[in-house]
Amino acid sequence: MKQLAAWRGDTLLLGKVWLAESATERMQGLLGRPPLAADEAMLIQPCRLIHTVGMAYPLDLAFVDKQGRVRKLVSQLRPARMAGCLSATATLEMAPGTIDRLGLVTGEQLHWRPA
Description:
Shape: globular
Distance between the termini: 12 Å
Strand content: 35-45%
Structural class: mainly beta
Mean pLDDT: 96
Strand order of the largest sheet: 6-5-8-3-2-1-9
Number of helices: 2
Low-confidence stretches: none
Number of strands: 9
Largest sheet: 7 strands, mixed
Order of helices and strands: EEHEEEEEEHE
């Protein structure tokens, strides 16, 4: 699985972002993995809908379009729930509290660089 970093302009937001782009990687996602650390995330691409069935911990989600623009934010999605955004092409899964800590807002532009 490729590792990227998430940036807002010249500001590093998340230093360890795993890219899940194959069907197998997307299906597995974070299932069976320990909770994410504050600087970790998983970018699932393509992805418009997330479920947390089988998860043991909540997630913060940023749904982004193909330009990296944040289309929808979901804070602390608990286990056994679903969230989605039809205008998104990818979903960034983050540790709970990350949206507030980073000050993410709908409409802002994120981009990805090799870690």
